[in-house]
Amino acid sequence: MYELRGVTKRYTRGKEVVDALAGVDLTIGSGDRLVIQGPTGGGKSTLLQMLGGLDRPTSGSVELDGTDMARLSEAKLTRVRSENIGFVFQSFNLIPTLTAQENVETALVPLGVKTKERRERAAAALESVGLAERLGHLPAELSGGQQQRVAIARALVKQPKVLLADEPTGNLDESMRDEIMDVLEAMWKEYGLTFIMVTHDSSIAKKAPRLATIRKGRITVKENAGA
Ligand SMILES: Nc1ncnc2c1ncn2[C@@H]1O[C@H](COP(=O)(O)OP(=O)(O)OP(=O)(O)O)[C@@H](O)[C@H]1O
Ligand SMILES: [Mg+2]
Q1: What 3 state SS string does 100-114 have?
Q2: Looking at the whole model, is its pTM more than 0.85?
């Protein structure tokens, strides 16, 4: 699925140079679940941006099913992203003026899905994350955990191959954290997703079948046969 070779990302601001990724090689198979941890500023979010085609590496290649995303035109990259990759962020990133249903529908607009089908699929996605009763609510009328469920439904409604999550439980209290992890786990199984998640939560990291640690832009991966 993913094949990363020699990926570097250098940010330059005036005289200041930051090597956020300093040569990352990584293979991720279809249907894999990979958990990424590491100290703040280590490069976790930067790596996720490369995997999601939200940004391009300074050097190296980021192949998704044989296509190097680093070399695609902006238009093609946008297409690959909107068809194949779902994102969930720590700060839900919902549009405050749209209802839960409308927020989820936004993911289908770039794919040219017609209004009626959009409505049906968004409602089904919200139902699958346990929000069938909240379709007409605005984000401000939902709890944090419910808002994150909407964001998960929005990420999955297009039936992507890949789900990328950057500290999805970072803004939630403990009980909601477990709830959201259960939803993500269920979705991973149900959709047969390749699921890559950044987390600071060591109890989640402990249970991960495959655990990557990123420090100073360098990655190490450990297989955990017991998980
Ligand atoms: N747009 C940017 N411009 C300049 N420097 C950046 C930019 N984005 C990230 N960096 C720097 O790159 C390094 C890696 O940042 P990144 O956000 O990937 O870390 P992280 O591991 O996700 O940290 P955290 O756990 O705090 O989220 C940091 O030193 C950061 O300051
Ligand atoms: Mg980060």
Answers
A1: HHHHHHHHHHHHCCC
A2: yes
